[in-house]
Recover the amino acids of this structure.
């Protein structure tokens, strides 16, 4: 697949790039994408939820009423889960939600996400993006020039550019990552991918490793 290379003003530079078939031309594996997104979201969970169980409740252990003769069920402590303010039965405990996913599955998921975007014609190649200083207005102007102001965008750069990152930080629905930081969730979550020409070759190198 050939794509036109645009400059940061949205103008055709007259150049074209061919997307690597072994990355952007494969049949997307939806299950691999599902697993990788599931792992990514699981890793975002802090897992610090905690409810006090019966043994941890600070109430008195005094027996509430006599054992027999009341006509009701036996009650030994206000800590019992059947009483208001009592301990929680099988309440949540701190836990780690992360799980292992094979490196090759993660790589297949990223390739599949990129291939899906290519098939949906949701990829634009930019020759380069650079700002003299951090300025949100400049990034909004850049998105407007490529007619993407209202869409979720993911800009992929070859290396960290603090001016571009800081300029995009306060823009809703916009995210900037480097080629080595690309993950399946960000790729799927974006409506359109903006890939710099240099980042495209860097992505190809990373997938060959």
């Amino acid at each position: 697949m050939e794509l036109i290379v645009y400059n940061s003003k949205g103008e055709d530079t007259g150049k074209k790039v061919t997307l690597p078939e072994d990355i952007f031309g494969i049949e997307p594996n939806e299950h691999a994408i599902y697993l990788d997104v599931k792992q990514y979201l699981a890793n975002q969970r802090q897992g610090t939820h905690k409810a006090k169980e019966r043994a941890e409740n600070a109430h008195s252990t005094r027996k509430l009423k006599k054992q027999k003769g009341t006509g009701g069920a036996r009650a030994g402590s206000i800590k019992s889960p059947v009483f208001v303010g009592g301990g929680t039965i099988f309440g949540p405990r701190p836990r780690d939600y992360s799980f292992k996913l094979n490196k090759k599955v993660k790589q297949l998921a990223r390739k599949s996400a990129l291939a899906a975007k290519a098939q949906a014609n949701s990829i634009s190649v930019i020759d380069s993006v650079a700002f003299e200083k951090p300025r949100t207005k400049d990034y909004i102007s850049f998105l407007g020039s490529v007619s993407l102001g209202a869409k979720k965008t993911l800009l992929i750069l070859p290396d960290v550019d603090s001016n571009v990152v800081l300029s995009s930080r306060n823009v809703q629905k916009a995210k900037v990552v480097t080629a080595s930081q690309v993950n399946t969730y960000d790729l799927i979550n974006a409506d359109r991918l903006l890939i710099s020409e240099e980042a495209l070759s860097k992505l190809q190198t990373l997938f060959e490793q």
About this structure: The chain has a mean pLDDT of 90. The chain has two domains: 2-29+102-208, 46-96. The first helix runs from residue 21 to 24.
